[in-house]
Here is the input.
Amino acid sequence: MNENSTDQTKQELLRQELSKLVSAGGVLRPEDIVAAARSKSSPLHPYFEWDDSAAAAAYRLIQAAALIRYVKISVETKSDKVVIVRMFESLPSDRGDDTGYRTIHSIMNDEMKREELLKTALCELEAFRIRYRHLCEFAGLMREIERTSEALRAPARRAKEGAPRGKTGSGKRPLSRPRVHR
Here is the structure.
């Protein structure tokens, strides 16, 4: 059985099991899933950590990450606009066994890290576009996301193809380098 069919089987099993737990009001609650999964015979059981010590340690890591994401700072963009942003960001290159976060200041002052953050933002925008593409109220926003993504990817594509880099749009960088205000 290949990986794709295994995932499809898993997806179907989870769809069936979770659908059984949807309340009469149409709501699926995490606590109902945990309650159903407690039984060792439940198909949901293996998706959870049942060793309370291990689960507690894992949950503390989730809490620590939430604290990191909670801390905000004010930054001033090139256009002198002050915006509130997360003080720390997790870049894909910092994830894995030794997951970590970097200050937004250090990311914005390192061209490679800044480009990585920009690529991450574009991926998240694309995920948003895909997740909500069925909502016609967002049609204009979806077109703008596509236009902006294409404009930001074009210079990289031209560089990869060996074409000379020309200015696109206003010639300004798509993401300002902030001056950090604490």
